């Protein structure tokens, strides 16, 4: 068993004490990134960052721990893009003013996003504009900013697509919102596709990460199987755009 899998399992055992169950997956953390007690305080820390306050277009993952942040983006009138679960139906774009004020809580949930937001493909994302802030959940994250999720590397793939399309770059701030029990001081060697975050927001504190290297760029097509590409619509679209299909 890899070191990251060992750490992930250790964190999942701790998470059971603070996680909010999912309506579909209960506490099966291999299937989703959970919301948790104190997420409001963690989100407070993130939204106080100048990089967040100055942002014009935010990318947010579909993790349950991002629900509160999605609600605040809706209330503040900031446009946002969210990937669908496991990118199975690509991305959703939610423009300002679409959601009635009283429906912000519902709209922030995945079913609400499906109701109010509209699907967008990669070609349309490039017309909407560049992201200037990205936020994600994680199963765990190290103090030096290496995050790992359910084990399927979707955020890393999203980052690869966005860099390929020029929607993010080396300076784009990335934040993880997690519970304090999900922050570990283990030392991990990042893989060729790992994204080092700039900030880790928890209920108790905000960790600012001193990045030590450059982030990966583009999709490592050599690491993608034909099945992964064919079953992930955005990857398939990008492969066609690049003449690989």
Helices and strands in order:
Elements: H1 3-15, E1 19-20, E2 35-36, H2 39-47, H3 50-53, E3 58-60, H4 67-76, E4 80-83, E5 91-94, H5 104-108, H6 110-116, E6 118-120, H7 122-128, E7 133-136, E8 140-142, E9 147-148, H8 154-164, E10 174-177, E11 183-184, E12 199-201, E13 206-208, H9 226-231, H10 233-241
Parallel strand pairs: 3-4, 3-7, 7-10, 8-11, 10-12
Antiparallel strand pairs: 1-2, 4-5, 5-6, 8-9, 12-13
Structure report:
By secondary structure, the chain is of the alpha/beta class. The protein has one domain: Rossmann fold (3-Layer(aba) Sandwich), CATH 3.40.50.10420. It is built from 10 helices and 13 strands. The chain has helices spanning 3-15, 39-47, 50-53, 67-76, 104-108, 110-116, 122-128, 154-164, 226-231, 233-241; strands spanning 19-20, 35-36, 58-60, 80-83, 91-94, 118-120, 133-136, 140-142, 147-148, 174-177, 183-184, 199-201, 206-208. The mean pLDDT is 92.
* SSE topology string: HEEHHEHEEHHEHEEEHEEEEHH
Stated plainly, the CATH topology is called Rossmann fold
Question: Tell me, what is the CATH class?
Answer: Alpha Beta
The CATH architecture is 3-Layer(aba) Sandwich
Q: CATH homologous superfamily, by name? A: NagB/RpiA/CoA transferase-like
Number of helices: 10
Low-confidence regions? none
Biggest β-sheet: count, sense, barrel?
8 strands, mixed
Estimate the global geometry from the Cα principal axes.
Answer: globular
Number of strands: 13
Radius of gyration from the CA trace? 17 Å
Give the fraction of residues assigned to helices. 25-40%
Strand content: 15-25%
Estimate the mean pLDDT confidence. Answer: 92
- Total count of domains: 1
């Amino acid at each position: 068993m890899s070191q990251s899998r060992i750490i992930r399992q250790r964190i999942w055992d701790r998470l059971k004490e603070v996680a909010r169950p999912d309506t579909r997956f209960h506490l099966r953390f291999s299937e989703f990134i959970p919301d948790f007690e104190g997420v409001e305080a963690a989100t407070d820390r993130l939204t106080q960052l100048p990089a967040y306050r100055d942002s014009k277009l935010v990318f947010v993952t579909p993790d349950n721990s991002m629900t509160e942040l999605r609600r605040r983006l809706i209330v503040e009138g900031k446009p946002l893009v969210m990937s669908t679960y496991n990118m199975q139906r690509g991305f959703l774009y939610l423009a300002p003013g679409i959601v009635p004020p009283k429906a912000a809580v519902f709209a922030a949930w995945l079913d609400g996003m499906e109701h109010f937001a509209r699907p967008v493909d990669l070609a349309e994302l490039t017309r909407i504009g560049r992201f200037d802030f990205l936020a994600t959940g994680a199963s765990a994250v190290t103090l030096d900013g290496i995050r790992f999720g359910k084990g399927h590397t979707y955020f890393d793939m999203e980052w690869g697509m966005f860099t390929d399309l020029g929607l993010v770059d080396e300076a784009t701030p990335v934040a993880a919102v997690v519970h304090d029990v999900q922050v570990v001081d283990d030392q991990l060697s990042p893989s060729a596709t790992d994204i080092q975050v700039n900030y880790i927001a928890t209920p108790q504190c905000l960790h600012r990460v001193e990045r030590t290297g450059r982030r990966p760029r583009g999709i490592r097509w050599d690491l993608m199987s034909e099945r992964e590409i064919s079953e992930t619509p955005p990857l398939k679209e990008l492969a066609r755009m690049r003449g690989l299909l």
